[in-house]
């Protein structure tokens, strides 16, 4: 028996080549000409419905027509997170070698679940995880980790592991501590895991947006007196708002003394370990029980790629191993890792490949220099703002993030007026689509925030954007 030609979902070799080259050409044109595009897409649901709504078509359409439709109607209405003037949230600078790596992984449809399915894929994941373990000073032999879809899944995987190791099945009295600057994905993970709000302690931060240590200690003591079971302390190595690194060494001491799991969320700042003074900046990171890093941010990988590292790989296998009958024949020997036993997903894409290929092609040194450059660019931006009489630096250049607001010294605006003015500046810049620059809130003030992790962003890109802000501020 053989399926009808069209039911085989096949193209001819000539078609595969022709269409494949069209896709490559479109990507190369985008990467080479991205700077000439506008980074921001602004569209309402109604506009997108109007442009794109259709019923699932029963009949075939030529690939050319489908691709043309995508290039004309879909791609132009998507923000460009790799654009040099995309300054908000956490940009995704990406790199073309990894785009090719991801293409290979998809094209060969590599199943990266178990050893037996793809021995070399599992091996490359082991090798690249070892590169990372080494960078962070985690134990070589005992350490382990896994690539995930992103930082959110890495944090969830970490916290599930922490709960399993520290609490076993009864977590009714367990409490977890994190600061008010910790990333929202952590609270989301804790809620997904079934903890109640009463089991989450959000500790205030100090003037520098770091954990208020005394308040943390008080909270732990109070909880013990009340019969709660503190089990996990979550620190940030690079908060998303300000790039602030918590007092990792001090917090690790507290975790040790109190027998708490010490998780560090380095999804934003972890990559800084590659910078010249990275070891200093992230001092204490090696003391974590588990560490989240997010290669699709500052390791310049395309989406999706997160990573969890742990001090002891057995914690992962001890938490995530289930042994269904249909996987019995593919378990492999004990040195052969089945990544489906180290995390939540069974079927997983081959994420290690893009990381491996890009690090090998460019060399780790190129990544180090890119990150060093990001630091320098952010420092230069701070200097530019400090020299100006129109701007106030609210949180200084830290791990390539700076927060500032328009606050001319010759005008005496009230706090409410400043909030309004800076919101309006952001709105006008975003509406112009020339740059992505949105606000955040620090100490109750609305401020502009720049995250400068794109190595293709120049000082001119920054200056043009600040000048644009000044021009729209004059108009307001
Ligand atoms: C981005 C970020 C996350 C979430 O990672 P995703 O890859 O977006 O899921 C978690 N923590 C911090 C500190 C982040 O900056």
From TrEMBL:
Record has Zinc-finger as a keyword: no
SUPFAM superfamilies to which the protein is assigned, alphabetical: PLP-dependent transferases (SSF53383)
Cofactors required: pyridoxal 5'-phosphate
Residue numbers of N6-(pyridoxal phosphate)lysine PTMs: 297
Keyword annotations of the record: Decarboxylase, Lyase, Pyridoxal phosphate
Top-rank taxon: Bacteria
Bilayer-spanning residue ranges: none
Pfam families named among the record's database cross-references: Pyridoxal_deC
Any GO CC annotation of this UniProt entry: cytoplasm
A biological process from GO: carboxylic acid metabolic process
InterPro entries: Aromatic_deC, PyrdxlP-dep_de-COase, PyrdxlP-dep_Trfase, PyrdxlP-dep_Trfase_major, PyrdxlP-dep_Trfase_small
Molecular function terms from GO: carboxy-lyase activity; pyridoxal phosphate binding
Family to which this protein belongs: Belongs to the group II decarboxylase family.
Protein name as catalogued: Decarboxylase
Organism per entry: Leeuwenhoekiella nanhaiensis
């Amino acid at each position: 028996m053989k399926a009808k030609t069209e039911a085989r979902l096949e193209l001819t070799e000539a078609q595969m080549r022709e269409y494949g080259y069209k896709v490559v050409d479109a990507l190369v044109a985008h990467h080479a000409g991205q700077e000439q595009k506008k980074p921001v897409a602004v569209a309402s649901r109604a506009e997108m419905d109007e442009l794109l709504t259709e019923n699932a078509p029963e009949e075939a359409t030529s690939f050319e027509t489908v691709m043309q439709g995508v290039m004309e109607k879909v791609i132009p209405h998507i923000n460009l997170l790799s654009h040099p003037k995309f300054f908000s949230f956490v940009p995704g600078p990406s790199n073309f070698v990894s785009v090719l790596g991801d293409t290979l992984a998809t094209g060969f449809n590599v199943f990266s679940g178990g050893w037996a399915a793809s021995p070399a894929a599992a091996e490359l994941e082991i090798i690249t995880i070892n590169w990372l373990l080494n960078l962070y000073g985690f134990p070589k032999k005992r350490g382990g980790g896994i690539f995930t879809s992103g930082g959110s899944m890495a944090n969830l995987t970490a916290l599930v592991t922490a709960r399993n190791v520290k609490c076993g099945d009864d977590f009714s009295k367990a409490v977890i501590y994190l600061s008010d600057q910790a990333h929202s994905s952590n609270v989301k993970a804790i809620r997904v895991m079934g903890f109640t709000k009463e089991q989450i302690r959000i500790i205030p931060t100090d003037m520098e947006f770091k954990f208020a240590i005394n308040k943390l200690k008080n909270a732990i003591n109070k909880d013990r007196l009340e019969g709660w079971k503190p089990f996990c302390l979550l620190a940030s190595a690079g908060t998303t708002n300000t790039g602030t690194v918590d007092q990792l060494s001090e917090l690790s001491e507290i975790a040790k003394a109190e027998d708490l799991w010490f998780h560090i969320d380095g999804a934003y700042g972890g990559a800084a370990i590659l910078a010249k003074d990275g070891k200093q900046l992230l001092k204490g990171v090696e003391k974590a029980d588990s560490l989240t890093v997010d290669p699709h941010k500052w390791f310049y990988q395309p989406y999706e790629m997160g990573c969890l590292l742990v001090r002891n790989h057995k914690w992962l296998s001890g938490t995530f191993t289930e042994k269904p009958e249909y996987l019995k024949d593919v378990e492999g020997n004990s040195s052969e890792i089945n990544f489906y036993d180290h995390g939540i997903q069974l079927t997983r894409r081959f994420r290690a490949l893009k990381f491996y290929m890009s690090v090998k092609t460019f060399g780790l040194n190129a990544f180090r220099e890119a990150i060093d450059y990001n630091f320098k660019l952010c420092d230069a931006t701070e200097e530019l703002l400090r020299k100006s009489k129109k701007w106030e630096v609210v949180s200084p250049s830290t791990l390539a993030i700076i927060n500032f607001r328009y606050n001319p010294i010759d005008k005496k605006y009230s706090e409410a007026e400043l909030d309004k003015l800076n919101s309006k500046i952001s709105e006008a810049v975003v509406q112009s689509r020339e740059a992505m620059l949105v606000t955040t809130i620090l100490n109750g003030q609305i401020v502009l925030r720049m995250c400068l992790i794109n190595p293709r962003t120049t000082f001119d890109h920054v200056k043009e954007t600040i000048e644009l802000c000044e021009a729209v501020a004059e108009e307001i």
